[in-house]
Design goal:
The chain is an all-alpha fold. It has 20 helices and no strands. It folds into two domains: 229 residues, no CATH class; 177 residues, no CATH class.
């Protein structure tokens, strides 16, 4: 694919996916405010306790085959049909397993409600299996506009239904409905609008070829899902459902900020990396640009949220959610690393090094798990969260080291490229904290002052020092901004 055409597709994909992601964030943001006032921490805690089982089930259904279809240069109809039938059959088996394990899981947490909740919510696993191949095809062909529109429409419908149900007093069942609709609606749309339909064929050859790559993607994802969500198992067992609810709200809010942009980059970067897998020089250039663009926008956001966490939670969710604030602030520090992890991991997968990814995932996930368990059993909840911070940075450093080894973007060079952005963000944080400490006013006015001061210091500093990441973002977006302004006029 010509470089200009590839760049246009990549930038267009980023813009469409960004528009979708941040539109969805806005919708979730507004509905989250409403739901947090209508529902109790215990309702969120109930869903949080089951999240590890739902995520593991979904990981098994995908099995890494979605990534394998995107990574393969020219997948055939036989490939797509084979994986479709495999996913659907496996999803039914996994749902039945969840159904019969539900009473045991309910007994483990000492909450009878979890049994019917898991049995109903488990339907998501089967429904999701029907859209894995459809999504792989859309991503493979850079059809991000369609994905964005469908995702936005899904968010509007599902969250509207959730709010109505919560207002009517359905409690945790309103969250269950939301989770089901978020998967059901896009599946229906893709099947009624996409041209692709499976043929009656199952090829052992196709399955083995895709399995050889996908198995390591699957094992990597499975291990990551298990370790990244085991804290819910620990908190749910050792603490009350309210504490689990506070953690869930803190984690979901942090995730909304830390991973929103990185998810946009990841969705576009993987097929882009796959196109460039045989041209390491161009691949290094793309990784550098995506890393710095992500860091430039996400680093200041996470540090600013640490500064204004308390007024944000009180204003958005009400006073009853203030115990979640310290959890959120610690998690934001982890978010600085989380936003960068996918940029590197997607590159490693795209060049076909899924086996190496899995081998190193064992190292980083179990080491990270050790940080979390030691922190939890020695220092309690805050120790667990600090362990999560250490794990996040460890994962980033290992991913960056693998990019250094397999692609040639040296680790020292990566860190030196990131350093100016990190220093500017930290400097803006410290300067804002110092200035705001001398101002006595309400917490909301103080928060507003912190936002303004931080923004001015950060962006003026970036322009004054001619920060490469700032110039990069400006050059990438300015043609599209100009076109948009012309359309408005």
């Amino acid at each position: 694919m010509p470089e200009k055409n590839l760049k246009q597709k990549a930038v267009s994909g980023v813009l469409w996916t960004t528009a979708q992601r941040f539109s969805s964030i806005f919708i979730q943001f507004i509905s989250g405010i409403i739901l947090a006032r209508l529902l109790l921490p215990e309702d969120y805690g109930c869903i949080g306790m089951l999240s590890i089982f739902m995520l593991l089930a979904s990981t098994f259904v995908d099995g890494g085959f979605g990534a394998a279809l995107i990574q393969k240069k020219k997948p055939t109809q036989e490939d797509f049909s084979t994986i479709f039938y495999w996913n659907v059959c496996l999803s039914i088996i996994i749902y039945l397993l969840l159904f019969f394990l539900a009473p045991i899981i309910s007994e483990f947490y000492k909450m009878e409600l979890l049994c019917p909740v898991l049995r109903i919510q488990g339907i998501v696993v089967v429904v999701n299996a029907f859209q894995v191949v459809q999504l792989a095809q859309l991503n493979k062909n850079f059809k991000f506009k369609k994905i964005s529109i469908v995702t936005l429409l899904t968010s509007i419908i599902s969250l509207s239904v959730t709010i109505i149900m919560a207002y009517q007093g359905f409690g945790v069942w309103s969250l269950v409905a939301q989770n089901i609709l978020m998967v059901l609606i896009p599946t229906i749309i893709y099947w009624t609008t996409n041209h692709w339909k499976p043929t009656f064929v199952f090829s052992r050859k196709s399955f083995k070829e895709l399995f050889d790559f996908g198995i390591f993607m699957f094992l990597t994802s499975l291990l990551s899902t298990l370790v990244n969500n085991i804290q819910g198992l620990l908190i749910g067992k050792m603490y009350s459902s309210s504490t689990m609810g506070y953690y869930s709200k803190a984690h979901s809010t942090e995730k909304l900020a830390a991973t929103s942009l990185s998810q946009v980059i990841s969705q576009v970067s993987y097929p882009l990396y796959a196109e460039l897998q045989d041209d390491k020089d161009r691949l290094v250039g793309v990784i550098k640009k995506l890393t710095l663009s992500t860091a430039f926008m996400t680093f200041p956001l996470m540090l600013l949220l640490v500064l204004i966490a308390k007024p944000v939670f009180i204003l958005l969710y009400s006073e009853k959610w203030t115990p979640a604030v310290p959890f959120f602030q610690i998690l934001c520090v982890a978010g600085l690393a989380i936003c960068l992890q996918a940029v590197n991991s997607q590159a490693i997968a795209a060049v076909g090094k899924s086996k190496a990814m899995f081998s190193w995932s064992v190292v980083k996930q179990f080491t990270g798990l050790g940080f979390m368990l030691v922190g939890f059993f020695v220092f309690g909840m805050k120790g667990l969260l600090i362990g999560m911070v250490m794990k996040s940075w460890l994962i980033y450093l290992i991913n960056a080291s693998l990019v250094s080894h397999f692609i040639g973007y040296k680790l020292a060079r990566q860190l030196l490229d990131l350093l100016p952005v990190l220093l500017l963000a930290l400097g803006s944080y410290l300067g804002t904290y110092y200035i705001a400490s001398f101002i006595e006013c309400s917490i909301y006015i103080n928060a507003l002052i912190r936002i303004v001061v931080f923004g001015v210091v950060y962006f003026v500093g970036a322009a004054f020092t001619k920060l490469y990441a700032f110039t990069l973002c400006k050059d990438l977006l300015s043609p599209y901004l100009t076109k948009f302004l012309r359309m408005v006029k």
